[in-house]
Amino acid sequence: MKKHLIWCLFGATALSAQDTSIPASLANTIEGATIKEHVYYLASDELEGRETGTEGNMLAAEYIADQFASYGIPPLAQTGDYFQDVDFTVFKWEDISLIVSGDTVKHLEDFFSIPQRFPAQTEPLEISEMLFLGYGIDDPKYSDFEGVDVRGKHLLVYGGEPRINEETYLISGTEKPSEWSYNASLKSEAAKKAGAASIWVIEERFRAMASYARRYMLNGAVQMGSPDQINEYLPHAVLSSTIGQQIAGKKVNKIIRLRDKITQTGKPQHTKLSVDLKLSAEHNIKSTPSVNVLGYIEGTDPALASELVIISAHFDHLGKRGNDIYNGADDNASGTSGVLEIAQAFSIAKQKGYGPKRSVLCMLVTGEEKGLLGSEYYVENPVFPLENTVADVNIDMIGRMDKEHTDSNYVYVIGSDRMSTELHEINETVNRQYIKMELDYTYNQEDDPNRYYYRSDHYNFAKNGVPAIFYFAGTHPDYHRHTDTPDKIMYPRAATIAQLAFHTAWEVANRKERIKVDVTDKS
Q1: pTM of the model
Q2: Which residues contact 45 (CB under 8 A, 6 or more apart)?
Q3: What is the DSSP string of 169-183?
Q4: Would 399 disulfide with which of 310, 330, 350, 404, CB 3.0-4.6 Å?
Q5: Nearest Cα to 356, choosing from 463, 232, 241, 503?
Q6: Is residue 33 part of a domain?
Q7: What does the pLDDT look like over 342-366, one tens digit per residue?
């Protein structure tokens, strides 16, 4: 149906490679109706939410590969198919319990521990003494560990970091928090390096963190590779303020005073605590396979074909929760479908002899919902040299509107100017020339509290030196809920954003010079 119209369009005239009508005609092959067909399958109940490592996830991967084949995109020479195998390990708690002074504390209600970052236990962890160590920070600008021997000790610390005043953080010296405020692994790593036996973190934001952890762990937390590395981690727990106070017992007021003194003086404080804790944790660990799906369109210019433009989206979602299927129509069947349409447009260009000059890799990755794992695997095990990768164009959730806009003719653009001013200007230029959407840079700000720049697959490329641009339409009430269904997608809008992504990728792939990395990424 659609393919017949495409051949008519391109068979009618022989266009020169420089004709600006070529990218416009190619972009017009990206249609909302076809995106709708893809979304209705990918977000169907049959695929049961496409959770990484499940049968539904593999059905989605096979569907994507079938589409690539139908476009005339050949299998990868390296593998003979369209798949990059990715091995994951799934961690669940078989059983986990905490007893504080004789009282049983409920996991994910008053405390939680991350199973893939907790070493295997042969017997319960029983603790009679702890060391309160401020915020558990070890940084050149401030260290709770300085002058304190923590070897073999169990540490009780506060989450976050101290402030000089309401507006200034001690570590950064600005109103923006340092990584110690949001990278939970830093404190555990610092404690392990110093020889501590365990770390317990009191979090004021416990309810929000536990809610996220509950969704993350319900069907099993996932990491790449072998489960052996869990023994590299330190026993740990994240605590509500109530349980933190219960553990501190009679010294609760003292540790609060010490915390306040740290804020007032900028100097670390510590004290010993007598406690009565028993933590039992038993893992359920299994290995599970998944795949990234790769559609490779080799460049037509012998001098430039070794360089690569990646167009990415994740095809996994959250799977099932009880009887509810989390279909993930917007997150991210919409972006996956957009990349499929873009892949077809590039394949048509190649078959008709119009380019692209550089090679293009349309990459649908797994494991994004588990922590950007599929894209992380690719950058650690690239099929094509990472140093030859010119840019990553990433698409995630392009099918809905958010409450911040009354007109659907917008898209959030994230990361375009973080590493390359040329990439930013290319996107601006092609938008003015072809698409004319409102480009909203709200979430590109370095102080964006949502931190979307760090939350989709482009980030794994950016942190490895590859300029990246991320197209995103924002969140909505159905985000990460079982109500994210295909009937709510705005298909013409999704097609328009995919067309913009195509134009940007086309220009990057066909310009004479490789875009330059001329900005120091501050991430």
Answers
A1: 0.80
A2: 325, 327
A3: BTTTSSSS--GGGT-
A4: 330
A5: 503
A6: yes
A7: 999 999 999 999 989 999 999 999 9
